[in-house]
Design a protein that fits this description.
The chain has 345 residues and is an all-alpha fold. The protein is built from twelve helices and no strands. α4 packs across α5, α7 packs parallel to α9 and α7 runs antiparallel to α10.
Length: 345
């Protein structure tokens, strides 16, 4: 408890001073310092969701957390597990991390990057202490919530949301009514998810810090296009998983999903991460970036295999038929098959 008393104020001081320093240095003194315009564009693109994650929790907590009249949104009386809080436990703190990353990308100066790393580490300390306080406040309910929802890893969070909903759909009857089969052990599932997320985050950080100053411009813009494509896939998933009541209008009515993006490939979210890794390689044009991004691709493929075994157990013959119809990750083959199916109708 003594450590929490001093670590929290110190962490908040580092966050406050660090964000101000990043903002001033990154936008006014060392803006686009390395001359990598593509990185600057990506930084501004990251800035947008960081703002959204910053203010949306205020609205959610005011409406759903039992905040009494006249008190601020942080004085919660009800544990909120819906909306953004289905994906990560601390979306507002995650927004601070994304904001630091955005300024690192926009500036590309080593000093701004160092300050950004310090800010992110301090935000993590704040989240750690916040979890302890919330365990004291909500007890076993929060401990259960901690096991189900990651602290700030939104990639793992989205995967877990999808798996929880698939499990719930299967409990309610699923698509085929087949009995559940054995899934792979939990440690493999956790290892694959966290290793993939760690490599993805490391790829982004190394792309910021070690982009080749002699990088070929048109290749970087090609990498940026891949980032945009991956971002569209990711935002679509986030929208569908965070706002489930909107799913029906997109064809997501429950059970086995085989329409939309899932009519092209079986694992669009993992394909999006792979596309982002390829984009990072093209943007960074550095051996160090490639050394981290390339291993991320087979790890994502490992995640696909784990997910498929789990889905076969949940959906039975219906999923096996879906596997025969839709490729695992080959976008071109998937589009060709989709067009062929539409032509045959």
């Amino acid at each position: 408890m003594n450590m929490e008393r001093w670590s929290d104020p110190v962490a908040w001081a580092v966050v406050g001073l660090g964000v101000v320093a990043q903002f001033v240095l990154g936008l006014f003194l060392w803006y686009d310092w390395a001359g990598l315009d593509v990185m600057t564009y990506i930084g501004w693109a990251v800035w947008v969701p960081s703002f959204a994650l910053g203010w949306l929790p205020i609205l959610v907590l005011r409406r759903r957390a039992g905040v009494r009249k006249g008190e601020t949104y942080i004085h919660t009386n009800v544990l909120v597990e819906s909306g953004l809080y289905r994906v990560v436990r601390h979306p507002q703190y995650l927004s601070m991390m994304l904001f630091a990353v955005a300024l690192m990308l926009i500036s590309q100066h080593w000093a701004v990057a160092v300050i950004g790393v310090a800010v992110m580490a301090s935000v993590y300390v704040v989240m750690w202490n916040e979890d302890k306080r919330l365990v004291e406040k909500f007890g076993d309910d929060y401990k259960r919530y901690m096991k189900a929802v990651p602290r700030a890893n939104f990639v793992v969070g989205l995967v877990r949301v999808a798996r929880r909903e698939a499990r719930q759909d299967n409990t309610e009857g699923g698509a085929s009514g087949a009995p559940a089969r054995n899934n792979l052990s939990n440690w493999q599932d956790v290892t694959a998810s966290y290793l993939g997320s760690a490599l993805a985050v490391a790829t982004i950080v190394l792309t910021v810090l070690f982009t080749n100053p002699r990088a070929i411009g048109w290749v970087q813009y090609l990498g940026l296009a891949l980032f945009v494509a991956a971002g569209v896939v990711f935002l679509f998933h986030a929208y569908m998983l965070i706002l489930p009541r909107r799913r029906k209008s997109w064809g997501y009515a429950g059970g086995l999903v085989d329409s939309g993006l899932y009519g092209v490939v079986r694992h669009p979210l993992y394909v999006g991460v792979i596309v982002a890794c390829l984009g990072a390689i093209l943007v960074g044009q550095s051996w160090l970036v490639a050394a981290v991004a390339v291993p991320g691709i087979p790890v994502m493929y490992w995640n696909m295999l784990l997910e498929e075994r789990s889905n076969v157990g949940r959906f039975g013959d219906g999923y096996e038929a879906y596997m025969q119809r839709v490729p695992r990750a080959n976008l071109f083959l998937g589009l060709a098959r989709l067009l062929r199916r539409y032509g045959a109708q």
